[in-house]
Design a protein that fits this description.
single chain, two-stranded antiparallel sheet, 16 helices, mainly alpha, globular
Length: about 375
């Protein structure tokens, strides 16, 4: 078998697209995450109009590009895992509506905040930017918490998904705990970005808030691990034989609820423990960086923490994508919820062409916009700045 034949094998394509989906979601959390974190910190780290303009101008030129990863992640779910897209975007519809409504406030806030010099006008848009940062960070974590516990849905004989939950069911204590992990992680990342890119008092306040958020992230994430260890965050295990190149039909397998299931992959491959360990160690390293004034290393440590925390969830659940709490046999997995082999192959070819172009352009943008944002630079820019 040649490398091309191996790469385009149905089993390989499914695993590759599971990995690519993880990469896209991690890229979204690591890039747009600090944008949301800056928004969540805006009323606290920046207290005067000029200070808030400094904070906004650290992300103003890059936030739209960072959201490309959100679009790519949603698009890849739609094309590569259509059943997952149908269930998550319909079952979590109200939660997704809250996220999108909050995220819509960000571009509106960026564009309209400085249209009038009225302090009350600007203060309202500042709070809109806060909502646009804090609410998605919280709800994304809530969604992950519900996914770990299992989602109430089943499939009909025609594979039509039927969601049986509601918004208030999503807001359960364990899911809200995961939301706090996500929120503290995003605030830490936004503070690390502000400490790295802003100058003066904004950077100093960001370091103070970032240190607290980094400790909270490490403690809450470790606490989440304890919940998984105690079997309180669910767990689902495929008990039938896995046919990796079989048909995309979630009804052709058996799954059982197993409180120890989310630990099985780490126990089978002990090297994987490095990932959650870094999910705790990296925020602690960021805390030391905030205290020591090592801004560049702090941001890298924060980014590593974000990557490892998100990756831990994917590694724990593999090969499960979306477990069903009401009928575990109907859970969606990597090997039975994908698109056709031809679709995955053609998308992989397109990704191999366009993803490097996106990465190259993103790297060029950050290189051009390198350097700190100060009050003087914002005042000198006048209306060309946010």
């Amino acid at each position: 078998m040649t490398f091309v034949d191996f790469l385009f094998d149905y089993q390989t394509l499914r695993i590759v697209w599971w990995g690519l989906l993880g990469v896209l979601l991690i890229a979204f959390a690591a890039t747009d995450g600090f944008d949301m974190g800056v928004g969540a910190l805006l009323p606290f780290a920046a207290r005067t109009d000029i200070e808030r303009r400094v904070a906004i101008n650290t992300i103003g030129p890059v936030w739209e590009g960072n959201q490309v990863w959100f679009v790519l992640g949603g698009g890849s779910i739609f094309a590569a895992w259509p059943a997952l897209y149908a269930l998550s975007f319909s079952g979590f519809y109200l939660a997704m509506f809250l996220i999108l409504a909050a995220m819509i406030l960000r571009p509106v806030g960026f564009k309209y905040r400085s249209k009038r010099p009225d302090p009350a006008w600007r203060a309202r848009w500042d709070w809109a930017l806060f909502i646009g940062g804090a609410v998605p960070a919280l709800i994304f974590g809530v969604a992950i918490g519900n996914t770990l516990q299992g989602v109430p849905f089943h499939l009909t004989a025609e594979l039509r998904p039927v969601y049986e939950g509601n918004l208030f069911g999503l807001l359960n204590p364990l899911a809200l705990y995961c939301g706090l992990v996500s929120l503290s992680m995003i605030v830490m990342h936004g503070a690390a970005w502000l400490a790295f890119k802003a100058d003066g008092i904004v950077s100093q306040r960001a370091k103070a808030f970032g240190g607290r958020a980094a400790i909270a992230t490490a403690v809450l994430f470790a606490g989440g691990g304890a919940l998984v260890w105690a079997g309180l965050l669910g767990g689902y295990r495929v008990t039938s034989e896995i046919v990796w190149d079989g048909p995309s039909n979630p009804l052709l397998k058996t799954v059982v609820a197993d409180p120890a299931a989310w630990l099985a992959n780490f126990q089978a491959w002990p090297l994987l423990w490095i990932v959650p360990a870094l999910g705790i160690a990296a925020p602690l390293a960021a805390w030391l960086g905030f205290r020591g004034g090592r801004e560049g290393l702090t941001f890298l440590a924060s980014k590593l923490g974000v990557v490892c925390i998100v990756a831990t969830v994917g590694l724990a659940m593999f090969p499960v994508l979306l477990p069903s709490s009401t009928n575990p046999d109907h859970s969606l997995t990597v090997f039975d919820a994908s698109s056709s082999r031809a679709t995955l192959r053609n998308m992989l070819i397109a990704t191999a062409i366009f993803l490097p172009l996106i990465l190259a352009y993103t790297a060029w943008v950050y290189r051009v916009l390198w350097g700190k944002v100060s009050e003087k630079s914002v005042e000198d820019a006048g209306h060309s700045a946010y």
